[in-house]
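Need the bound structure for iron/sulfur cluster, inputs here:
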Amino acid sequence: MQENATQALPPLEVIVARSAGTCFGVEAAIELAETHRKPILGPIVHNPQIVNDLAQKGIPILERYQELDNLIHDGVKEVVITAHGYPKELKEALVEKGIQFHDATCPVLLKWVYRKIRTFEDQGFHIILIGNPNHAEIIASRSYGGNIHVVYSKEEVDRLPAGLEKTIAICQTTITKEKFEKIVKYIRDTKYPNMRAVDTRCKPVKNQQEAVEDLAQWVDAILIVGGFNSSNTTNLANLAKKYLPEKTYHIDSPDLLQAEWLQGIRHLGIGAGTSTPKSQIDDVQQRVAELYQGEVHFRKEGNDGEILDGDFTPDDEF
Ligand code: SF4
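Answer from helper R.:
Posting the output first, comments after.
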């Protein structure tokens, strides 16, 4: 009886979003941490699995903004700075205290965002940085300008000074396009009508956001895999929820996947943030195959959004 019931379930098609998983910035940061094996000032990236893997390899994860005298007291002479960047004055303090740092700050920030900040300020712009003021990336980025205004809500926009001439908005690399545009509009409507805006989201984030948005529009349910403290992963989940408010599931471990989420689903999407390792995506696919009482076909999306021919088992190279 049970066997017949199992065979009656139609096949489940699982489609992994194009560009899902770690970006070059995250991969370089992990490699740097593993190469130097020195204490890291904060989680190297916002993914618990990666952080735990490094900790298990004996690499200490310290508090991000701790007193440098404590480091000296503990005999720490070298540290690693995370992919999110580190405030300019704190880098200078490390040098002053004789603590060498290995910098895993993403090149997108070092070579693009910070450079834009300097260039715009040299051109006489007041910079409005749209992003979470408590996020490590924003805390670092704002330190590379003279007087950057950070806003992430209408209330923060309302508190901006009136009458600033020559303003320009840039944004956190992981923010959604929708949120960026919404805040830019609100600032133009209420504060600076002529403000210019430059979308400084990084390419991997843009690609992933587009891919998840495309996928969420036609699959029956979607899993977004990655750390709950990862802003780009959380933003992917929020994007997917626009189309699948009841069928978007943000998980940071395959153990969280529930069999009932697969009931009545024929097409299941999987998206993953820029800090989600491929192994974690594979583990989630494996868990789907274990939980679903029927055939499961794994497919991947091509760069143009087309579903590529052929089935892919969870062990295939993506
Ligand atoms: S998400 Fe973008 S900014 Fe962040 S590490 Fe990856 S490439 Fe760099």
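Comments: Residues 23-26, 83, 106, 108-109, 173-174, 202, 204-205, 232, 274 surround iron/sulfur cluster (CB under 6 Å). The first strand starts at residue 12 and ends at 16.
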